[in-house]
């Protein structure tokens, strides 16, 4: 008869704390998803009033006071722009920090300083800056800068970690074989760091897509989705906000899943390329 599994001392208190943390983290999301499937004329809390897809249809109703279609599109477009810029700038920053240029420590702290400053103050500062210049901040101008101040530090930190694991001998070997600087970058550096770049892209898009405090004062007359949700919550809160919350959560999960799929196929392709090369040399 097999003996029972022996638990380490203090296992159950730690396990209980862990499960309470999961409940605290994902419990509100579960409640929002459940309440989004209520029937017509429902309230914002339990008990549920029937079961239907009524409030999901309200999301796409242009006559409803909270029309989320255009804010959703603006958030996606802004997220894609932020994603591309974050990838490019973070990759270039990673290349630069490998050279240990003069003043690199100061530049590093300036990059991560925006993570320390309260988000609402950054939004307010950008709005005041546009106002002093006689300009009107919009979601694609001031909002873009505000989001980059949030995503770039994460992107740079990720790329610094990626480049710290990159063996410079691989690039030196490519140059010894006659590769130019551009060929080495294209065929060696970028393919090796590509999974990290995908991670930076994921951070850039999801952080921008969900961000509210940094764009709250600089969105202009056309709101992004988080700003529109907060306004709707203050003016005319209905379970429609739960429906849009459920849909945006599923959308974010799809983006994360797609990123994992991309990384999986990149690694599979790399393993296949390595196996073919070994067979060819044999």
Description of the structure:
With 282 residues, this protein is mainly alpha-helical. The chain folds into 2 domains: 34-66 and 242-282, no CATH class; 69-235, MetI-like fold, CATH 1.10.3720.10. The protein contains 10 helices and no strands. It has helices at residues 11-35, 54-59, 69-97, 104-116, 119-132, 142-164, 168-176, 181-210, 225-235, 240-281. α3 packs antiparallel against α8 and α6 crosses α8. The longest helix has 42 residues, at 240-281. It is globular and about 70 Å long. The N and C termini lie far apart (52 Å). 27% of the residues are buried.
Low-confidence stretches: none
Named CATH architecture of the largest domain? Orthogonal Bundle
Q: What is the CA–CA distance across the termini?
A: 52 Å
Strand and helix order: HHHHHHHHHH
What is the CATH topology of the largest domain? MetI-like fold
Strand content: under 5%
Main structural class:
mainly alpha
Taken from the alpha-carbon principal axes, the silhouette is globular
Helix content: over 70%
Q: What Rg, in angstroms, do the CA atoms define?
A: 24 Å
The total of beta strands comes to 0
CATH class of the largest domain: Mainly Alpha
